[in-house]
Amino acid sequence: MNLATSIILYADARKKSAFKHEQEVRLVFYDENREHSGYRGLLIPVDVGVLIEKIVVSPRAEGWFLSIVKTVVTKLGNEIEVAPSEGATPLPIDSLLD
To answer: Can you give the pLDDT at residue 65?
Structure first.
């Protein structure tokens, strides 16, 4: 793996320390042998109910987005908790944008 690839993979896997409490896990698949070259993604079958215990929505997302995520999760037959991030406190500039 070259330096440029390492930097790209690091950027994809990095998480801001302010959200460390969310204990998010990210999967990045690196196809070193380029067996899947040209694909935009790779389908990996998983049991979503086992893999995901909670969906945490961005503190910057509006209420309608949270509602849509909850609806989609339910329509797909999953019983996964959907909640706004605990870091959802408004920023001082938010009051100026209202």
So the answer is: 94
DSSP 32: T
Residue 20: phi and psi, rounded to 5, are -60, -35
pLDDT in tens, 69-92: 999 999 998 889 999 887 655 555
And the tokens for 34? 């380029």
pTM: 0.53
Measured in whole angstroms, the distance separating CA 70 from the mean position of its chain's CA atoms is 15
Q: Which domain holds residue 86?
A: 3-97
Q: Are 52 and 63 in contact (CB under 8 A)?
A: no
Residue with tokens 């790779």: 42
Per-residue pLDDT at 69: 95
Domain count, the chain: 1
Residues 6+ apart with CB under 8 A from 58: 85
